[in-house]
Amino acid sequence: MTTMTTVSDTPSETTPSPEVQAFLNALDPAAATLVILRDELYEGSWDDMEADLRARLDGRPYVFKLAHRIVDDLDRIRDLKRFELDQQVNLGTFIRIEP
Question: pTM for this structure?
């Protein structure tokens, strides 16, 4: 099983600001997964990730449950993107996948 940790759980050269650390502590696993996927699959681009998810939503027919998840993920992306812009931080710096 794979688990995700934040920088607060592991030693690192980069220390987040108190605001970023509070955000990381409140981050749900689905949002943390989106940060990792953004970095791994979309070369760090929220815009590319959003465009891909919207394209999947526009393709018909689709499974309602999957479509609902995509809409939820788009909401999460909006919030993550806004936080990163406001704080001038890349959350991917602080979120790791541990084997």
Answer: 0.72
